[in-house]
UniProtKB/TrEMBL annotation:
This is DUF4153 domain-containing protein. The keyword Transmembrane applies. The keyword Transmembrane helix applies. The chain crosses the membrane at residues 12-29, 41-63, 70-87, 107-131, 152-172, 192-210, 222-248, 260-280, 292-314, 326-347, 359-379. Keywords: Membrane, Transmembrane, Transmembrane helix. The lineage of its organism: Bacteria, Pseudomonadati, Pseudomonadota, Betaproteobacteria, Burkholderiales.
Length: 596
């Protein structure tokens, strides 16, 4: 009887996978042909979300939940998916992930964050629903959550692996047939109507096979967790060393990286994963080094998170909130709850980190609540970011000339576009700048999203931004007097565009014509050097460049400052073809460091 039930469940799962594949191909074909429903964002995005996630939940639920419970759960999941998708379209940040809009017009798909975080949301929610239904309780035991979540994770992982292996075999078969001049399989593998249904059906098949072989899944899980747990002592040593160096190195170098918060969050997440790999369900026999390492790691998470909170706070104070910073703050909120709970567990010496069971369960509920808030109007990161940037502009914390219109247009969604419309009616002393910037950004085509905004600016005094070498050498008057604000910022170093930019200026006759040229190398971010020369009209422009590897080489720059260099003729002369010079660039020999 059980085998018969298993066969029926398998047939149902394969049918679901095939139906999912056929419907996804229908959406793909509609997108390819710019036909309905791909042309309607409020239809296309919800359909994609439902067809990508809902069938996986159904396949996983069959055989474990009664039909009534399956119905309740899937209806609830469907409502959440529709809310997420409709809000994603409404906020105006959905994207063209299937096909580029420059080729196929008006083709819509969910935004990347929605796809990523919806998968995380439903993984957690599905594991909690399955565990609760299995035990007949609303909140299951920690062991139930542990077994269900890890089984689901391994099922998904190996199902992806199975699909990849299947197509690898199909590709090999196509190559074998090509040896005898038969192209049918290769041509078949190039057809989306074949690939999409096969992927979905194979995925459902793998989900079923891993579901009916729980012993194999449990063995893989145990092996994986044991291997991960032995990485824990290494991670503890590294994180401890990092924290111990902070009092001596200070935090300045940390902030200059501009991605300190992200690195710290990754470190905290790694510690959380490794601690749970060692802890497992709380009943595993764990070696003493791992027990010490897990308890130490539980203490280390909080200081790592505190540094991350401080780093994010500095960015918010300096530049205000953005959507990315709101997401980082939400992540910090969740990890702070973990950190406090794990610290409490670490000081419970009578038990082997048993409070983790309570912390993990209730923080999982917090994760679901946070994701619901972020992807609904409750705490939309785009809205918070736009409001913060507009408030900074109104309070004078950012100058009108430096205001980031690009952020409002492409990261603020409907909120940003509404703010730009408001700025087109700006009044006051900076009204002209704000109106021009807002109108230009609103008129910009969506395909130019990834083009960075370019401004033409210059500091009040270029001379104040230059450290001249040889010391005391006169910088050509025409170079200092030139109106550099007519040159776009992406075509000049920061010392010619902002007050904060600083450069080393090397004055020497580079071409032997008796007139000095000026080589500029930025002091902080040496992405390369630019050699400026004066043309016949008295205008200074870039005549040559210095490779970024040389500009970033401190020993080389130091020798330039000391004047320890000579001018040498190039090894190869240039080719002159039809009146045009074509240089022959010599190969750079491999060097042990930047000055050898």
């Amino acid at each position: 009887m059980e085998a018969q039930v298993s066969r029926k469940v398998m047939a149902a799962r394969l049918a679901i996978g095939l139906a999912q594949g056929l419907l996804l191909y229908w959406l793909y074909a509609a997108a390819r042909d710019s036909a309905w429903p791909a042309t309607s964002a409020y239809v296309m995005v919800p359909l994609m979300m439902v067809l990508l996630i809902w069938p996986v939940l159904l396949v996983s639920s069959l055989g474990h939940l009664t039909l009534r419970k399956v119905g309740y759960w899937l209806v609830a999941a469907l409502l959440v998916l529709l809310v997420f998708a409709q809000h994603d379209v409404w906020r105006g940040l959905h994207a063209d992930l299937l096909l580029p809009r420059w080729r196929y017009q008006s083709v819509w798909s969910p935004s990347a964050p929605l796809l990523l975080y919806s998968a995380a949301f439903f993984f957690i929610a599905h594991a909690m629903v399955m565990a609760g239904a299995h035990e007949g309780r609303r909140i299951a035991s920690y062991n139930g959550y542990f077994e269900t979540a890890w089984k689901l994770a391994i099922q998904l992982l190996f199902s992806v692996f199975f699909v990849g292996a299947l197509f690898l075999v199909l590709w090999l078969g196509a190559e074998l047939f090509m040896l005898v001049k038969l192209r049918f399989l290769r041509e078949l593998l190039q057809q989306s109507w074949f690939n999409v249904p096969v992927i979905c059906t194979a995925f459902s098949c793998a989900m079923h096979v891993t579901d009916v072989r729980p012993a194999i899944v449990r063995g893989i899980r145990t092996l994986l967790l044991v291997l991960l747990s032995w990485i824990l002592p290494v991670a503890v040593v590294l994180v401890t060393g990092f924290i111990c160096t902070l009092p001596f190195t200070g935090l300045t170098a940390l902030w200059e990286t501009r991605h300190a918060t992200a690195v710290l969050l990754v470190a905290a997440t790694l510690l959380l994963v490794l601690i749970n790999a060692a802890f497992q369900n709380g009943e595993a026999i764990v070696a003493l080094p791992l027990r010490v390492g897990a308890r130490t790691a539980a203490i280390l998470i909080l200081p790592v998170i505190m540094v991350g909170i401080y780093a994010l706070g500095l960015r918010v104070v300096q530049y205000g909130w953005t959507a990315d910073r709101v997401m980082a703050a939400a992540y910090l909120l969740v990890t702070t709850c973990y950190a406090v709970g794990y610290l409490w567990a670490a000081y419970e010496y009578d038990t082997w980190l048993q409070p983790l069971t309570t912390v993990n369960i209730y923080t999982a509920f917090l994760v679901l609540a946070v994701l619901l808030a972020l992807f609904t109007p409750i705490a939309d990161p785009a809205r918070i970011g736009v409001q913060s940037q507009m408030a900074r502009l109104a309070k004078g914390k950012v100058a009108a000339a430096d205001f980031d219109f690009h952020y409002l247009r492409y990261e603020g969604g409907r909120y940003g576009r509404a703010a730009l419309q408001e700025l087109t009616r700006a009044t006051g002393p900076d009204a002209a700048v704000l109106q021009a910037g807002a109108k230009a950004m609103l008129a910009q085509d969506d395909k130019d999203r990834w083009k960075l905004p370019v401004r033409s600016t210059a500091p009040a005094s270029v001379a104040d931004n230059l450290t001249v070498w040889p010391a005391g050498a006169p910088v050509p008057t025409g170079f200092l007097a030139q109106k550099w604000d007519d040159t776009r910022d992406d075509q000049k170093p920061s010392c010619l565009s902002t007050r904060e930019g600083k450069c080393d200026a090397f004055v020497f006759d580079a071409d032997g014509d008796g007139k000095p040229e000026v080589l500029l190398i930025e002091k902080k971010n040496a992405f390369g050097g630019r050699l400026y020369a004066e043309d016949g009209d008295g205008k200074w422009s870039v005549a040559a460049t210095l490779d970024y590897r040389d500009a970033a080489c401190k020993p080389l720059v130091e020798k330039l400052r000391k004047g320890e260099f000579t001018l040498a003729a190039p090894r190869f002369k240039e080719l002159e073809i039809d009146g045009q010079r074509v240089p022959l660039n010599a190969e750079r020999p491999p060097r042990e460091n930047c000055f050898k």
